[in-house]
Write a structure and sequence with these properties.
Blueprint: H1 2-11, H2 13-25, H3 34-46, E1 50-54, E2 57-63, E3 70-76, H4 103-119, E4 127-133, H5 141-147, E5 158-165, E6 173-175, E7 178-181, E8 183-192, E9 196-197, H6 207-218, H7 221-225, E10 232-241, E11 247-248, E12 251-260, H8 263-283, E13 287-294, E14 299-301, H9 303-317, E15 322-324, E16 344-350, H10 376-392
Length: 397
Amino acid sequence: MIQTIQRDAEEMREWLVAVRRALHEHPELGNEEFQTAERIEQELSRLGIKYERTGTAIVGIVRGSAAGKTVALRADIDALPMQEKTDLPFASKTPGRMHACGHDAHTTILLGAARWFAEHQNAFGGTVKFFFQPAEESSGGAEVMVDRGCLENPRVDHVFGLHVMPYLPVGMVEVKYGTLNGCSTGVTITVRGKSGHGAYPETGVDAILVASELVVALNTIVSRRVSPLDSAVFSVGKIEGGTRTNIIADEVTLSATLRASTDALRDRLIDIIQTMVTGICSAHGAQGKVAIRYGYATLVNHNADVDLVCKTAERLLGPGSVQWKESPSMGVEDFSYFIKNTPGAFYHLGCASAGYTIGDPFHSLHSDCFVLNEDCLPLGVAMQTALTLEALGGDLS
């Protein structure tokens, strides 16, 4: 069966490239993926796959020849608000929009897997669901899809997803047990002082001075309040305050991001931030207010499903095709919601340029010069297909 899957995926190459390039030319932002969703619907309809669409989220379903488990595969479909600078003949035709994170490849790979299962319904038992998810880069479409019941009717037993990676050669996958991606939290700190004349500082409470002290103090949290064995990042990205050079500012706003390797660590750091803001502001006679905006949850892989990914990759791509990720990424990924209460795993698929060797310079994800090696497309289809069959309990010999 492995050889059959490899052959079938390779025979899709021309179609996969055409689909991916069409998607790449017309990138759309989160919850605005109308043309993308229409293209997905066209392909699913052509394949005779039943699906439901809500907004721009689509759930397709293919049932095998016998009852069995249900496995879901996910692809994110949105693009980024960037101007492409690749000069590719199929570069983005929409100003200020680009598939710089490979979601066009994810969508294409999932369509390829859907095609395989639609054409081989007698070759497996069970059910396969296909989640085409909007808004991974913005509002978090995964959580919305889960809340709407995509994991039910029938109940999903395993969920798998992948992300292309330009630092991995084509033909390799990267995996990690446990936490793969950290969680994100937006932090807004408002410092309220008292306005006064710059020549008479004793008449006011300088919100800029207090905010400056807070920036320095808060940047010690990770180095002094977090174990070196854990991972966290706190970054102040924006400061707003003041009106004129000779007026003591009465209000300053700090906007920051907090990343942590576990939700528990995130919660502890939020408590520390609250305490530091209250204490430092009080010491200066100012008032401080902290507003928290919870982002994506930590992505924690299920170890048994990671083992399935490794087993499949070794059989499909050969010995030495699996690279182990040493520590979690502080970049976030809302696939976390699909596997929060359902077994599953997320892994990385190599998409580096031809001739690339690990350690060479490369254009990263979210770069306006990011270029995908399309040789990864058939391999992605083969991986997702074989992995699903493994999870369904099929015979791949």
